[in-house]
Amino acid sequence: MSDTKQAAVLGSPIAHSLSPVLHRAAYDELGLDGWEYGRFDVDEAGLPAFMDTLDAGWAGLSLTMPLKRAVIPLLDAISDTAASVEAVNTVVVTGDGRRVGDNTDIPGMQAALRERGVTQVERAAVLGAGATASSALAALSRVCTGEVTAYVRSAARADEMRGWGERLGVAVRTAPWDDAARAFEAPLVIATTPAGTTDALAGAVPDAPGTLFDVLYEPWPTALAAAWSERGGAVVGGLDLLVHQAVLQVEQMTGRSPAPLAAMRAAGEAALAAR
What we know:
This protein is of the alpha/beta class. Helix content is 36%, strand content 20%. It has a 6-stranded mixed sheet with strand order 2-1-3-5-6-4.
């Protein structure tokens, strides 16, 4: 199959993104010889002009920060999943030129957990309260049957997380960051904070912990993930999330399913090892 199509990841900064590696590996495996996947540094101010360049030669876009909310007014439609967290990480350009937004982070999180045998838990904890935390709550709405405790740094963040919980149908209790080590009592912990934030908590990991989902993939392992593994706990990493959400993007943009998960993961691991 040699029809030429273009896709790309947009964000700012964007040089670190592994998305081109993953998507190009998928194209190679699927025999999409004419397909190209680029990387463009685009901020919120430059996004409208970039969106205006999308024509029939484009298959779609992957979006990272700070564009996941900024893109919404520029689209013709968004999925219910994207609307639930007001965040779009995937844009598909349809055959009739419409630009449709979706969020593959949420089902990607669920798929990454399912791959490690986590399909349902009675309670969970979330470390952090940023944009990724709202996606984590959305994923937990499909996985957690009971209460989710969010450990946050401010009253404003606590209000935000409780608001997301109400919107997503998740029972959210908030607790101060100073008590974050208490999170490890839960059978599932999702760490959504920037690099280095949870390092000080590594010494508090208990014996026989449950499952840790740390959304970072560089540096890896984080101090927390390493301590978790040493104590026998299951760890799901940021590369797992990146690959699973990219699999769904490839399927939507190419119309080919299933996307080659193993080849994409291998390409991502090799690229990280080379850094």
